[in-house]
Amino acid sequence: MVKVPNAVSPLRDSGVNNPGGGIAATDIDGDSRIVNATVDRGATEAEAIPGSLPDAIFADQFEG
Prior knowledge:
- The N and C termini lie far apart (45 Å).
- The protein contains no helices and no strands.
- Helix content is 0%, strand content 0%.
- The chain has 64 residues and is low in regular secondary structure.
- It has a domain of 25 residues.
- The protein is globular.
């Protein structure tokens, strides 16, 4: 069983995005390896914490 880091885990967003051997595009579950700005440590990447993305990304720029 793979455990996903919780919202306050020190494993979240504490990895290295460009290690010497490179980084896989997906985690062990097949999900994107980097969700926020920095990769999580461990085999799986946690989903974004609700409210952690700037609202400007989702403002009305996509609708006419």
